[in-house]
Amino acid sequence: MIKVHGFPVSNYYNMVKFALLEKGFEYEEVLTRPSQDGEFLSKSPMGKVPCLEVREGFLTETNVILEFIEDTFWGHALFPEDAFGKAKVRELMKASELYLELPARELFGAVFFGRPVSDDSKASVGEKLDKGTAALNKLLTFTPYAAGSAMTYADIMLYYTVTLAEVAVQQVYGKSLYDDLPGATEWLELMEKNSNVQQINRDRDTALEKMKQG
Ligand SMILES: N[C@@H](CCC(=O)N[C@@H](CS)C(=O)NCC(=O)O)C(=O)O
Question: What is the pTM of this model?
Answer without folding.
Answer: 0.97
